[in-house]
From TrEMBL:
Predominant location: periplasm
One of the protein's GO biological processes: proteolysis
Organism of origin: Prosthecochloris vibrioformis
Active site: H138, D168, S244
Gene3D superfamilies: 2.30.42.10, 2.40.10.120
Cellular compartments annotated: Periplasm
Methyltransferase keyword on record: no
Pfam families: PDZ_2 (PF13180), PDZ_6 (PF17820), Trypsin_2 (PF13365)
InterPro entries on file: Chloro_Bact_Ser_Proteases, PDZ, PDZ_6, PDZ_sf, Pept_S1C_Do, Peptidase_S1_PA, Peptidase_S1C
CDD domains, alphabetized: cpPDZ1_DegP-like
Domain PDZ residues, every copy: 288-354, 395-465
Protein's UniProt keywords contain Protease: yes
Protein name in the entry: DegQ family serine endoprotease
Sites where the protein binds substrate: E82, H138, D168, G242, N243, S244
Length: 499
């Protein structure tokens, strides 16, 4: 009898803890207006819902999670893409090597090509009543057609509004009625250990709007290798291929992240998933909708983290801030007086933890803004004000990038300090041109051109800058020969192929 009473006491204690935990939750969302949007999207807001209704039983505890899922699921869509590519058909003659191929640097094009349609699937989340949808860039990149399937099983065509490969985000738009937008939450307010829910279409459309539950495992994850600007939320909510672009939702039913990738040795779920924070996603989305592209602030320095040995060498009491290496000539930092060897300890009075944090904060600050840097210089504190410029070498608009890929089979970008670091290029390259992507089914790839190659000349004409490159390729028509001189790891190589 005493044993049974002890069990009852434990159950009551659990219910009381549950009541405290869930006392202030909001599980339903509503739309803030349904007017048609142009360049000023009006987002949904969380409504009071069950905010002040305590959970007093296990059934109510269960019902709380059900209501979170029911509130968010109608905002999730499955995204279908199709992309037509050319596949080269190998002829019998291609099976034999010829010494002339290597001598001229031009492999024979004996084989014919055939058209093949590649199909893809991913997830997205509706963020406005008139059809703006957030997803990942890699879900829709290069797609010829995009179709979404809504929670009520409607299939609707969608178009790309804009993409931002640097954060792996994209905005698409579908013209449809009775869409259910999700409320966007504050990802900065998330704490490690909070419950979250991931929703998407893992492994195929037959598993559309799958709901999985977990916790926030970590925040601010970077150096994952998924995007240029990384500040990921890590979660153990089950995420699998096909979940990309779907929402990560907090216990108030608000969007706090866009599920992007998993860390896995097998390709399946192993308890580590990553999501782009909603605050970053919202800034990118606003820029893509209002301007068609994302502009980022630029400081004009290369930086590195400060470890214990560097701290001792600089006379710091402990590792802090980030160390300035190269100061770009005529850049914003140089104009403000920043020098090599300075340690940036604060920006606008807020402490700087590491290089990733500083880079993201500078990039998210609009060009033309003034920022105050607290520096450590040769044993003393210094303050400087810097007016940020626009990050040079911005990504091409989606249409321009697709046009270039269609014509050349590869894309290029003006060389920037960020690209120099990404491709581990050495020396002062000035206004160089770097290959940022190569279509694997194209002639350029088969000829040997690879991402990270520096283009020095086109058809025997030097291309010292991006405009010179565009002028050089403008006169080359489809089917004609393109003759490139590139530099790769310090060696110069010629490639020639037909467009």
């Amino acid at each position: 009898m005493r044993y049974k009473a002890w069990n009852i006491a434990l159950v009551l204690l659990g219910v009381m803890v549950g009541a405290v935990t869930f006392a202030n939750l909001d599980f339903s969302i509503g739309s803030k207006g349904n007017s048609l949007l142009t360049t000023s999207p009006r987002y949904a807001e969380a409504s009071p819902g069950l905010q002040h209704q305590p959970v007093t039983t296990l059934r109510e505890f269960n019902e709380a999670f059900v209501q979170i899922a029911e509130s968010a699921t109608p905002s999730v869509v499955t995204i279908f893409t199709e992309k037509t590519v050319s596949r080269r058909m190998i002829s019998p003659f291609d099976l034999f090597d010829s010494p002339f191929d290597d001598f001229f640097g031009m492999p024979r094009q004996n084989g014919k090509s055939r058209q093949e349609v590649l199909k893809g699937i991913g997830s997205g989340v509706i963020v406005t009543a008139d059809g703006y949808i957030l997803t990942n860039n890699h879900v829709v990149e290069g797609a010829d057609t995009i179709t979404i399937r809504t929670w009520d099983d409607r299939k609707v065509e969608a178009k790309v509004v804009g993409t931002d490969p640097k954060t792996d985000l994209a905005v698409i738009k579908a013209e449809a009625k009775n869409l259910r937008p999700i409320a966007i939450g504050d990802s900065d307010a998330l704490r490690v250990g909070e419950w979250v829910i991931a929703i998407g279409s893992p492994l195929g459309e037959n598993l559309a709007r799958t709901v999985t539950q977990g916790i926030v495992s970590a925040k601010g994850r970077a150096n994952v290798g998924l995007a240029d600007y990384e500040d990921f939320i890590q979660t153990d909510a089950a995420i699998n291929p096909g979940n990309s672009g779907g929402p990560l939702v907090n216990i108030q039913g608000e969007l706090v992240g866009i599920n992007t990738a998993i860390a896995s040795r097998t390709g399946g779920f192993e308890g580590i998933g990553f999501a782009v924070p909603s605050n970053m996603a919202r800034k990118v989305m606003d820029a893509l909708i209002s301007k068609g592209k994302v502009t980022r602030g630029w400081l004009g320095v290369t930086i590195q983290d400060v470890d214990e040995n560097i701290a001792r060498g600089l006379g710091l009491d402990a590792p802090e801030g980030v160390l300035v290496g190269t100061v770009v000539e005529k850049g914003p930092a140089e104009k403000a007086g920043v020098k090599t060897g300075d340690v940036i300890r604060k920006i606008n009075g807020r402490k700087v933890e590491n290089t990733i944090e500083l880079r993201n904060r500078i990039a998210s600050t609009p060009p033309g803004s003034d920022v105050q840097l607290d520096l450590w210089r040769e044993g003393r504190s210094v303050q400087v004000n810097v007016r940020l410029s626009e990050l040079p070498g911005q990504e091409l608009a989606a249409e321009e990038r697709e046009d270039m890929t269609d014509k050349l089979g590869f894309t290029v970008s003006p060389l920037t300090p960020e690209l120099t670091e990404r491709y581990r290029l050495s020396g002062d390259r000035g206004d160089g041109i770097v290959v940022t992507g190569v279509l694997q089914s194209g002639n350029a790839y088969r000829a040997g051109l690879r991402e990270g190659d520096l283009i020095l000349s086109v058809n025997r004409k030097e291309v010292p800058g991006y405009k010179a490159f565009l002028d050089a390729i403008a006169g080359v028509d489809q089917g004609e020969l393109l003759f490139l001189l590139v530099e790769r790891k310090g060696s110069k190589i010629y490639f020639a192929f037909n467009l």
